[in-house]
Amino acid sequence: MKLILIFSALIGASLCLETFVGHQVLRIKAKDEEEVKQLQLLESLEHLELDFWINPSAPARPVDVRIPAASVQSVKAFLESQGIDYSILIEDLQDVLDKEKQDMAESAQRQRSSSFDFGAYHTLDDINEELDHLASEYSFVEKIQIGESYEKRPLYVLKFSTGGSNRPAIWLDAGIHSREWVTQASALWIANKIASDYGTDASVTSLLDKMDLFLLPVTNPDGFVYTHTSNRMWRKTRSKIPGSVCVGVDPNRNWDAGFGGPGASNNPCSDSYHGPSANSEVEVKSVVDFIKNHGNFKAFLTLHSYSQLLMYPYGYKCTRPDDYAELESLGRAAASSIRSLYGTTFQVGTICKTIYQASGGSIDWSYDNGIKYSFAFELRDTGRYGFLLPASQIVPAAKETWLGLKKIMEHVRD
Amino acid sequence: RAMELPPSHFPAARAAAVAVGYLRYLRGGPGRGLQLRELRRARRQDIDDVGHKYYLELELEDVLDKDRTVSCTAEVLYPLGSQTSAPDVQVTVQGELRSTEEADQEFYNRIRSLQKELVAENIPDSHGNVPPELEPIHLLAWVASGYVIWQNSTENTNFHLAQVKHVQQVKRSDEDLQFDYVVLLHEMVSQEVLPWEVTVLWHPRRGARVSRS
User: Fold this and answer.
1) A270 lies within 8 A of chain B by CB
2) Cis peptide before A306 (omega within 30 of 0)
3) Are A308 and A380 in contact (CB under 8 A)?
């Protein structure tokens, strides 16, 4: 009789479920065959929607069952009335599921963040995808387009800004010469480093709290694609030159700083061809316009490879800039920071003295346009692999370069 | 009479590149790749009616034995009207370079026993990889390009080997190994990357001899 009453109570307790809120998982220990039979009876009551994870079979085996919230009290009353031992494995299944979902999301987040291999060379498409990912992962990172290349590829800049309105800003670009693959690769690593260090590294946090950072990882996307598809040693843009069968202009001879002077060629077929006129290359013009319109840049930093050099203006003339002492000293400090990591030595000096006289260069333009802290880096190595730096050296190169950049940025900030 | 030069400035660096090219030709091989670790000191002397002479103190390393370095002095004389003749280079290596006898013999035997003539291209590849079995071919290209760089350098050039575009072994009836290379040389001042054909003959005891096609 009692059994019938209890069973009817159990029947009444069936319901339709969408979540597992309040569901409990019990572990039931049947002492003998009689108790096993009771549990099998329970199993047959379909309306209870009991979900046996381990079915009742023999006294030796524990029986695990998930019980919907509404049935929990009834089932427990039944078990107790029969003297059947049980324990609560899971108090509330939804809690467990929620926690698991959160763990998985966090793990997936970590997976997604580390699924981009910073220690490998990537295609332009992969790089652009990672820029999107960084922008979506960090609220203070935004991907903006500052223009289009000759072949109509977007020029994407990552803007790092924690607020304010037109804060003093730092410019960092890479890949103006497309064959210098370690630079685009390092720029990606550096972008990720800065984004993930904000909030945890005191220096980066203080930097981004006061200043904005604009990072252009692939300044010459047409050339970059060309190095993947056709000629790994391509340096210039891919613009058609009127009256010539040759293609492309050296984008670092195309700036309006001593344009057309020594150290640049007027031969369109040359790898240091300066172009028909200053800013003739849309890739260069886009950056110039952006920086001029912004009006508040304090530093202009550009990455090249190879030779391990840290240079400041001038390239178009061999005289020292007005800020020579400060730039030389800051350069040395940055080179020292770089060396502190792996012992990699960078030579410091003006472009003209260190590498060659070269006109139409970007940091000469930025310096002559009021951006005092203008530096050009030539990353690893010194010629053993040259442009073909093994991918295994990307992250070490990026790490040491970052220390040098950071040193300069900290000085600009303070 | 000789002017001290800052080692970090390009005139000294260019002369050092010539010296290293010459040294690679002279002392390099499939088992030894010489590289400049540091340019310690440089001086320049302008000799009337002759040319510009650079006195260099170099620290070199073997890329296959980086724990050790060896010191070297070099004199690089760029002749006047240097379009036509190669710089004159004298070098003195202080100390011993690691012996490559065993590695050389092993390489020699391996190549001699190949059924088909060795052919390869793009060393290193776009990503900087060199398969280990091609490293000796890569280093032999340094020898070959070292010769070309030495022969073609002026005070206005700074050459480096950018890549081995193509290499073809040519079997010979005598005891030498022959490799016909197409190398890409990166000239830093003009930024040009120029292909160059160069043939190397090599023997473990006789060393390398270069001829240009």
Assistant:
1) yes
2) yes
3) yes
State whether residue A96 sits within 8 Å of chain B by CB. Answer: no
Tell me which residue in A121, A356, A392 faces B189 most closely, judged by beta carbons: A356
Q: How confident is the model at residue A42 (pLDDT cuts 50, 70, 90)?
A: confident
Catalytic-residue membership of A378? yes
CATH class, range B2-94: alpha beta
CA distance linking residue A319 with residue A313, whole number of Å: 9
- Nearest CA to A181 out of B125, B188, B192 is that of B125
Model confidence band, residue A70 (pLDDT cutoffs 50, 70, 90): confident
User: Is residue B199 within a helix (H) or strand (E), and if so which, with residue range?
Assistant: strand B192-203
Give dist(CA A145, CA A168) in Å, integer: 20
Asked whether the beta carbons of residue A390 and residue B128 sit closer than 8 angstroms, the reply is yes
In tens, the pLDDT along B140-155 reads 999 999 999 999 999 9
* Interface contact A280, partner B, CB < 8 A: no
Interface pTM, i.e. ipTM: 0.94
Give A384's contacts in chain B (Cβ within 8 Å). Answer: 33, 35, 63
CA distance A134 to chain B (A): 24
State the average pLDDT over residues A178-183: 98
Among A181, A233, A265, the residue with its CB nearest the CB of B162 is: A233
Global model pTM greater than 0.95 = no
Whether residues A383 and B160 touch (CB distance < 8 A) is answered with yes
Contacts of A237 (CB under 8 A, 6+ apart): A149, A150, A220, A222, A223, A248, A249, A251, A281, A283
Q: What is the pLDDT of residues A148-170, one digit of tens each?
A: 999 999 999 999 999 999 999 99
Domain with CATH 3.10.450.10 in chain B: 2-94, 100-212
- Which residue from B minimizes the CA distance to A229? B126
Strand pairing class (A373-379; A297-305): parallel
Contact with chain B for residue A383, Cβ under 8 A: yes
Grouping H, G, I as helix, E, B as strand and the rest as coil, residue A147 is strand
A391 close to B (CB below 8 A) = yes
Residue in chain B closest to A358 (alpha carbons) equals B189
- Cβ proximity of B40 and B162 under 8 Å: no
A22 at interface of B, judged by CB pairs closer than 8 A: no
Would you say residue A1 has pLDDT above 70?
no
Mean pLDDT (chain A, rounded): 92
Say if domain A24-91 classifies as CATH 3.30.70.340. Answer: yes
Q: From the options 3.40.630.10, 3.40.50.300, 1.10.1040.10, 3.40.50.1110, give the CATH code of A109-413.
A: 3.40.630.10
> How far is Cα B66 from Cα B35, in angstroms, rounded to an integer?
10
Catalytic residue selected from A148, A378, A400, A410: A378
Q: Which stretches of chain B sit within 8 Å of chain A by CB?
A: 6, 8-10, 17, 33, 35-36, 38, 63, 124-129, 160-163, 184, 186, 188-193
Cα–Cα distance measured from residue B123 to residue B183, given in angstroms and rounded to the nearest whole number: 9
May I ask the CATH architecture of the domain B100-212? Roll (3.10)
Per-domain residue ranges of chain A: 24-91, 109-413
The pLDDT of residue B56 is above 60 = yes
